[in-house]
Design brief:
By secondary structure, the protein is α/β, with parallel strands linked by helices. Helices cover 55% and strands 12% of the residues.
Length: 215
């Protein structure tokens, strides 16, 4: 709940998997987090798994034409049927989730089926936001899926703040100084500007420095 400065409210994190938390009167309750076999809706693994399932339907001729099957083959480097067999046997959540970025890219390019999947993802996140909003507190989103322009555009009307990586962590640090949300967001904005101005080599060193290089 660092993104909310540990105040009452809700947070949803769609990344490789997905989970949400509600905090009200100091009591925490979890939403989702049911695992990728039965849950993880709105996450990268769900997007990719759904896209691959739709791809099998395209192959069977029961779903509208799409570039998804071709992209599955290109991304995983195997013929389609072999890809399905390999992924089914390996059951690697992170490997499958990594395909979500390609689904998002196809959606941006206008592939109807890919766009449908991203819209379903946004719809689920919208429902979660509705549930989180029942606390009457601040609602925030974090997680890699929120980098999707398609999803952000679908949700922007709700006005829910989105945070990534270090931004969410700063919420926990900021709590120690009792700063306000506006002050925290100003710090993040200025920090973001500074990071954008750094040479890429220096930025990568800062982000991926070894512990002994920091202390």
């Amino acid at each position: 709940m660092a993104a909310n400065l540990y105040s009452d409210g809700g947070i949803f994190a769609p990344g490789t998997g997905s989970v949400g938390f509600i905090r009200k009167n100091g009591i925490m309750k979890r939403l989702g987090g049911w695992g990728w076999f039965f849950g993880d809706e709105g996450s990268a693994s769900w997007i990719a798994r759904t896209a691959i399932t739709y791809s099998t339907r395209v192959k069977d001729g029961i779903e509208k034409d799409s570039k998804l099957p071709e992209e599955v083959e290109r991304f995983f480097g195997l013929p389609f049927r072999e890809t399905i067999a390999y992924l089914s046997k390996k059951q690697d959540k992170r490997l499958i989730a990594s395909f979500a970025a390609r689904v998002d890219a196809l959606a941006v390019e206008g592939d109807d089926l890919a766009l449908k999947i991203m819209e379903e993802t946004a719809d689920y996140i919208r429902k979660i936001i509705g549930r989180l909003s029942t606390t009457g507190g601040r609602v925030s989103l974090i997680g890699g899926v929120m980098r999707s322009k398609v999803i952000r555009e679908k949700l922007e009307v709700l006005g829910v703040p989105i945070y990534f990586g270090y931004q969410a962590v700063i919420g926990g640090i900021a709590r120690l100084t009792n700063i306000t949300f506006d002050e925290r967001d100003y710090i993040l904005k200025e920090l973001g500007k500074s990071l954008r101005d750094l040479p890429e080599e220096k930025l990568m060193k800062c982000l991926f420095a070894k512990r002994e290089e920091i202390f």
